[in-house]
Amino acid sequence: MSRKIGRNDPCWCKSGRKYKACHQAFDEKIERIREAGHIVPDHDMIKTKDQIEKIKESAKINVAVLDYISEQIKEGMSTEEIDRMVYEKTTRMGGYPATLHYQDFPKSSCTSLNHQVCHGIPSERDILKEGDILNVDISTRLDGYYSDSSRMFCIGEVSPEKKKLVEVARECIDVGLKEVKPWGFLGDMGQAIHDYAYAHGYTVVREIGGHGVGLEFHEDPWVSYNSKRGTEMLMVPGMIFTIEPMINMGRAEIYIDDKDGWTVYTQDGMPSAQWEVQVLVTDDGYEIISY
Questions:
Q1: Residues 134, 136, 139, CA angle at the centre, nearest 5°?
Q2: How many Å apart are CA 60 and CA 74, to the nearest integer?
Q3: Where do the DSSP E strands lie in 55-192?
Q4: Digit-coded pLDDT (tens) for 157-177
């Protein structure tokens, strides 16, 4: 945890209350769990009330942009067209696409087709055709606060196999959300998602997971979906992170495109699907703030 705070000092959460009447018991509970051998969050991972409200404002734009894409997406459209819509809608609402120029990423969104797992770079050459499945992943920065979510899209009539993959990937989010509880562990969620995917004959990507988000685009903790109950970081009220398991129809192995350095593919060429939500841990469960 952070530096020692006196009982009568102002609380670190900037509530204006004395520490003893605000977060002292909360911190002491976290410390007991840390002493029992668990990974616990520090104060930097626990968002204040004011920060949460500002992150939610960013998320409103993120959701609105994905809603807009959902209304416009169609067969014959290029992924570059989708990217332009993301940029125009985001900036028109006062935000900025967080992916644009992030570590030299060249676009305002990630568009991942069929056997592309994630981080697909929008292109005029990638034309949506009937039977495709597509993940559109967008992130918004508004006044220095970040939101992040993605959705899957089925283009026209897709095969029953692809449709089931997309559906199960979405169900994995719901299964994981049931395990998001204060004073539980990220591994509770990770194992629930892992077990559900594998029970349906799918695999879960190991190397790429979810992450904290809000004050930065990517923050701690890293979130695995191949973890065990009772392990990984303790979840406490005020934490914000993404749930975004990548579910493969075939094997779990992946590789990164050597040419662009970003696009992730399934090693066996089988389709992959992913949905992403941004979640706030609350006093009695969770709140989805971007989807």
A1: 165
A2: 24
A3: 96-97, 110-113, 116-118, 133-142, 145-154
A4: 999 999 999 999 999 999 999
